[in-house]
Amino acid sequence: MEITIFAKKRTSQEGRKFFSYLTTLPRKDGTEETMSVKFRDECGAPRPEDCPCNIVIQKGDANVSKRNYVREDTGETGTSKTLWITAWTKGSVYVDTSLDEYDI
Questions:
Q1: Exposure check for the chain: N or C terminus, fewer CB within 10 A?
Q2: What are the E-state strand segments in the chain?
Q3: Per-block average pLDDT, block size 10, for the chain (104 residues)?
Q4: Using CB atoms within 10 A of its CB, is residue 55 exposed (0-12), middle (13-18) or buried (19+)?
């Protein structure tokens, strides 16, 4: 399966800068679900400056974990999902089509 990986620059509470990775996965019902992505140390992560990029993963080289949480400020509950990847290869070139539906 080929998926698109996005890198987002973040800052920890201690002021340390790091990148987090995000993607969307297609569900069987046709919808897409956004989730964070973690790459195991042995396979490495794409370089943030190369993102967004497409990568190819096999079903046996990835899994999704779920974590329930409660927001401290509102008391709202939710579920956070993470795609864990143990092996990947570079996919096709990423082409941004986000503005195709607009008359620009």
A1: C
A2: 2-11, 17-26, 32-39, 53-56, 62-70, 77-85, 89-90
A3: 96 94 94 96 95 96 96 92 97 92 86
A4: buried
Looking at the structure, give the CATH architecture of the domain made up of residues 2-90.
Beta Barrel (2.40)
Pair 63, 84: CB distance under 8 Å = yes
- Joined tokens for residue 62: 């990835």
Which own/partner contact pairs does 84-87 have at CB distance under 8 Å and 24+ positions apart?
84/38, 84/40, 85/37, 85/38, 85/39, 85/40, 85/43, 85/57, 85/61, 86/40, 86/42, 86/43, 86/61, 86/62, 87/43, 87/57, 87/58, 87/61
pTM of the prediction?
0.85
Separation between Cα atoms, residue 57 and residue 25, nearest integer Å? 12
